[in-house]
# Entry
Amino acid sequence: MVVPVTSIAQPTNAEAASLQKKASEAQARIHANKNDRDQLMVAVKINEVPLAKEVLLRNGFTAEDLENAKITLRTGGGKKGENEIDIAVACCDPKEITIQRALDYFTK
# Structure
């Protein structure tokens, strides 16, 4: 008796490119929308992943994109202007989405 082997779908370069494109587009939309930008800043500040997911869903990500994705929220570590948000993705297995809020470094 032969048992059929079900293969698990492996991520493709197209999937990774699609996810990165969505991240770039979502980042641009969020930068252009003060309410979403402010809401995402708060989500990062208080480490509230469900709130960050809501903002991502409104800005181009799908529920399928976020399903089983590890979402990391980080504050600081950038040399960009204040109130800048960066969204980076790593695909796949597991999908990782990192949202970083860049802060100015103040020197005397």
Observations:
- Confidence is low (pLDDT under 50) at residues 1-9.
- DSSP finds four helices and three strands in the chain.
- The longest helix spans residues 13-32.
- Strands lie at 70-75, 84-90, 96-102.
